[in-house]
Amino acid sequence: MEIFIQILINSIVSGLLLMLVAYGFSLIFRTNKVFHIAHGGVYVASVYFLIFIHSYCQNLFILHEILLWGISIILTILFVSLLALLIELLVYRPLYKKQASEIISLITSLGLYIVIVNMIALLFGNETQMINNEVKESYFISDIIITHGQQVQFLFAIICLLVLAVPVNISRIGKKLQAVADNQEIASVIGINVKKMRLIAIIIGSLLAASGALLKAYDVGIDPHMGMSITLSAVVVVILAGKNSFWTLLITAILISTIQNFTEWFLSAQWKEGITYLILIIILLFRTEGIMSYKLRIENR
Amino acid sequence: MEDLLIIENLSKAYNGLQVLQEISFSVEKNSIIALTGENSTGKTTLFNLINGFDSHDNGNIIFDGKNISQWGAIARSRAGIGRLFQNSRVFKNMRVLDILLASCFDNPGERILNYFVNPASIKSFEKTSRNKAAEVLNYLRLLDKSQDFGGSLSHGEKKLLSLGMLMMNNYKLILLDEPFAGLNAKMIDKISDTLSDLARNGQTFIIIEHNIEKVSSISNQVLILKEGRIIENNKINNANNLIN
Amino acid sequence: MNYFLHIVILLEIYIILALSLNMKVGFTGLLSIAQAIFYGIGAYVTAIFMVELGSPFLLAIVISIVVSVFFSLFIAFIASRLRDLYFALATMAFQIILYAIIYNWTSLTNGPYGIAGIPQPEILGVAFDNLSSFALLGFVFMVLTILFLLWFQKTPFSRLLESTRDDELAVIAMGKNPKYYKRFSVCISGALAAIAGSLYATYVTYIDPSSFTIDESILIMSIVIIGGTGNIWGPVSGALFYILLPEVLKFIDIPDSIAASLRMIIYGFVLILIIRIKPDGFFGKYVFK
Description:
The complex is a heterotrimer of chains A (301), B (244) and C (289). In chain A, 78% of the residues lie in helices and 2% in strands. In chain A, a hairpin with a 2-residue loop joins strand 1 (139-141) and strand 2. The radius of gyration of chain A is 20 Å and the shape is globular. Chain A is mainly α and 301 residues long. In chain A, helix 1 (2-32) packs across helix 6 and helix 1 (2-32) packs antiparallel against helix 8 (194-219). Chain C has one domain. Chain C contains twelve helices and two strands. The longest helix of chain C has 27 residues, at 2-28. Classes of the chains: A mainly alpha (301), B alpha/beta (244), C mainly alpha (289).
């Protein structure tokens, strides 16, 4: 019994981290109409940048540890925003101008992913990086362990969701983003600045992914090639959830990570991805309504 | 004259919205039926039901003496129901000649086994269909375009080529969805000449057309659809119609 | 000289591989991101049959083609239900699932440790046990593939594949079944990829799952997109570009440690640029939309 509760707790924590990435992906996918595989590149890049800037600042000035981390994190937020800005302006906006299809955007994003990941490998090598190397005390309830890392992840994931995702859901900007997601032409006709909304979406989406990545790296570390698998898990969440509601996404993210953790426990870690994508392929193939329906396509063409 | 197509009490609803209600009419062999009515009264839906792109909820479709209600679009096409789409569906990345050759029925080259068992049949079929394609292209005055890509043709040429694709096979009934829309006067003449030639050869047409005067001048029966029902079904003995 | 032959052999394998994916992407318009799996199936089946059962090379190739064609039917099933983005996504999922199977089915594939000691091919008593003879063998397979495709391009059948690619609904209206053509092209594609895999396994004599990851699938896809699709010289030029790019980089004296990453960075940039500026690739015929 304990083991179930333990796995469930682990799943809630990792589900929150997955939610950060998935919400960002969903925001970008719907607003920018880009199947943003390079999300995984941004995910990884944020961690490497934080570690780099932290050690750089450490050598530059003598500061209190917390202040040092604070500065590094602020610089990382700036870096991720800048990266997202460049991606949108240099890569995705030309696609938008050309009204390129989703498949073209997918190929472009794959190309971008290759560039980012290999850039990181070139600069920092392929080794796993961790943010926090100390072992801190865990919290016990009878046999159930909640590690220090998990406590931090849980707390900060909720803070990040509250700061980044919730405002997008309820504010006026959120309504505008939704309008752009529904129909870019209509949105621009009723006076919404579509280009600006696209920028906002990709920046917030990337920051969400970055926060997920930093929290992940705080506990288990990260290597340049991890971005792909987390992005694909996020894709599964977004497709399975089907609609862009905060709660549906959150529940789906926790559900997927529960399935992954149980798979890991009862089979092996290597089956984790296989099982996740089995779910995806079954949903894609047998969901009858919505975008995939053959009959609907005939009517639309 | 005997009826080629009989539609009995055909109904279709999408998401609870009744698009077609209890449609009944029949089409004589070798006639031209004009189907007209305001926008979104179910004309194109009716075509989708007749050629099998969509299935109807109630009623029967009898074609050439057989009840084809349960048949799929592929079987109906092979039984002899051809269709000209409103926005021409020519293959964009193929050459005009190849498009015509691809549309032939019963090409032995469609079956892999024939390449091993009977390659000669493929060769001879290829030869006859090439001759036929050349004839069709010559008739449509598209011979000089035979090596152009389908996507590079003008709107009118695409319509002509689509007609050519239908001419490669002997369809008994051809459904034409606004064949004259968006064309200049010269092209309209060319296409209506082509249609009248085909009609003389014994083909039957159903034409969707908005302009009632234009259709009544070329057809011998006019159906007017409104809100999913046939509100008028007039047979005309028109001295000007295409057949005469 | 040995190094040159090594490059030649890699080139031959990648040309077959690129041509195999081109059957899906170029002839039928199916952007599949799972080609590394069929390549892997070819390599693994060949390795297992030659190492465990001691079967001759040609028999192993035939069996790997059969197995690969069988798994291709899954792709055909996906293609009959999904299009465009969702098809690509489902093939990615298929790639990851089959990779997990290869990785975890240790009793058959030896999991992450891979299969070593794959014997070099021998056909009718002629052993291809040195680089130059293997290069010759690869060349024969490559030329056979190209000749087959040159012939195939002219058949009435290939016209129907192309019409399926351009407009499925119009094919149905012509009284033909697009599913049949998709199934066929996917199977041919799987068979060719299996041949490339067999050659690879017997060439390197040791295989492990890391050669058949989703990254490899993305790479094969980009080779075809960069080179161009819908004909033969497009994918061939893509493979040439991919294999020869690091050789060009050698001239500008870059240390090996960063050359691999640099190659992929350049490659990613070229992919992004080509799809924007020249979407039909270097020498392609079909513009992927």
